[in-house]
Predict the 3D structure of the following.
Amino acid sequence: MFDDRPPDATVHYRHTNAGVRVAVLPATCKVGIHSLHAVGYKARVDQVDGVVRISCDSCAEAPDVDHFWVLRTTGAIPDLAELDDEPYRHIVPLMIDPRGRRFPSPVDGAANVPPRRSGSS
């Protein structure tokens, strides 16, 4: 789960009525098919890189799936976190092919394969 991929977005924060800072994390896996609350997840803060990585337990079982969000953190690490998709609705996740660390092709799922030339064998 730990690598050098660029962040998908920045963590959203809110404050409770008591002034407690809360990190608001995506409620749906990066692939967009699992509720993290339902299938489970792991969220790990990397203070050195200044990011939090949120891994979907269900997607993590599939070796060829980019299964975790990388979100840039700001300020002190909050004591609380909650799941909510609303602040992240506008985000288009940066999907990485974990086998070759390349961006998948939107056409056929192959990763950055050069197009075939017509007439070549």
Q: What stands out?
A: The two ends are 40 Å apart (CA to CA). Strands lie at 9-10, 12-15, 21-25, 41-46, 51-56, 68-72, 80-83. Residues 103-121 have pLDDT under 50 and may be disordered.
